[in-house]
Amino acid sequence: MTTSPKFAAILATLLLSLSTIAAAQLKIGSGNTALADPPVPRPHTQPCTVTLYKGFKFADFNPKSFPYTPPADCPGPWAKIILEANFSINQGRQYDRTANIWIGPTNIYFGTTAEPSHNVARHWHVERDLTDYSSIFTLPQDGTVDLGNLVDKTYTGILHGSADILFYPLERNQLPPRTADQVIAFSSGPTGGTVGLNTTTDLLEQTLTLPTNITDAYLDVFAQSQSNDEFWYTCVPNDVAGELFSCGGTAFRESEVTIDGTPAGVAPVYPWIYTGGIDPYLWRPIPGVQTMNFLPYRVNLTPFAALLDDGQPHTVALSVFNADSYFSATASLLLYLDSTATQFTGAVTANTLAVPVPSITENIHSAQNGTLHGTVNTRSGHDFQISGYINTALGPVTTTVAQNIDFANLQYFKITPSIYEQNINQDTTIQSVVTTHNAGGNFVNKVRHTWPLQMNITLLYNSDGSGTQTVTVNQFYERDQEARHNGQATSFSLIRNRVTPTDTLDFDSGGNITGNSNQTSAQNYFQSNSTGYCYSRIITADTGLLTSITDGQGCQ
């Protein structure tokens, strides 16, 4: 691809602006929350800003309401819509908390908060591209921010927050982006709210009679592990949970999507780790991957368009396989319509998706002195194809979703009177190929996700019961995308996000933390695409303080 000098200059200005925005909260030597994640790329037009709320105080479990009104000076359609939210917490003591923002019943932000320390207050900034959700922003409605937080004499951390939405007008002669014509929220009510899925059979579902001119359909899924399920990737089968001093239910969780009870899609669960998870010092000042700002997993339901177009009620449902109390879930159904058509006919022609059947191999050895060592290997996978077509005025349009999903969790245990070691090596690989055939030929979109998680937990006990816990984590999120039309590449993009902390906790004979040592962490974020956009940032920390910021590596 040849880049014009004018475009190169514009791009250089854009990348410099993004680096400046991303660097605004980073300061060498600071213990404040530090993120290497990039801001959402901006168009060149001047946005209109709608403030959702400002200066909200979160010190109880009552959701806070706010009014939303569309921007009068920037009527749609919009080139881009971006949520900007800012959070802070005073120094003191507090748990990590879950935060949600809703417009009407629709979720526009899902994440968790930073834990403070006794001498460091924290503040952080998150963004989300909401352009696909444009239709929900065209009418005034009530909004809600839900950030439950207990404040008393012991837990003194008070959270504050504000949020704005930026609406970017189209440039002169610019065509608007294709966005969902309807967004249907799957939440607990008209003002939003997540739904708890406690077991495999619990459902977040709606029975809907949908428009009859749907061409494309997608379900954006959030499934956040809570309570017993928070550390699901460390769990083992129930029959060995007691002797391994671990949680039960196995180390496999997966979100399933059904239409009228028939398997329709899979949303693998990302192993988010919150700022109080495993060892709070691990995540100071750099949180885990997506901890502060979850990404939804988008399930392509387009092969079912003809079924959904038949004018009859259909039940769309979400569940979490192996949920063990519980997953906090919400979803949004995005519908793309053809305004020139009244009703499409067609059919689902193939569907080989089935419920998962995990395999588990236990190889645990015990000795007469009570020591244990061995492995627990949990695997699951899908290799399926779903195909369907609709008849349009230009001929049939066929969509085929082919996915290969592999999940593996291998755990090694060593347990003696003076040692408890748990080694976790987990990987989720998702390879998706969506092929659309219409009058224009073949359009192929390939996406590959890989989500490795490597974790070593080693506890060493002294004779009086005191000791140390050393934890090392290697957490990834990687995504590669390529689009082709009739065999010719038309676009590509890639994301690499990796966080690598380590820490050693000291504890007394009562299990109370008395200090920590050898704490280091780093985040390496790289993103690029075929437009020429490239963003790279590496940050490192030591003893809870930011030590370095490296920008641009790999973008030359």
Report on this structure:
The chain is globular, with a radius of gyration of 24 Å. The protein has 556 residues and is mainly beta. It has a domain at 32-178: Jelly Rolls. The protein contains 3 helices and 30 strands. It has helices spanning 5-23, 238-241, 305-308, and strands spanning 48-58, 64-68, 78-89, 98-103, 106-112, 122-129, 141-146, 159-169, 182-186, 195-197, 204-208, 214-225, 254-259, 262-268, 297-300, 314-321, 327-337, 345-351, 359-366, 372-392, 395-415, 419-438, 441-450, 453-461, 467-485, 488-499, 502-507, 513-529, 534-542, 545-551. The strands form 5 sheets. Strands 18, 19, 20, 21, 22, 23, 24, 25, 26, 27, 28, 29 and 30 form a 13-stranded antiparallel β-sheet that branches. Strands 9, 10, 12, 15 and 17 form a 5-stranded antiparallel β-sheet that branches.
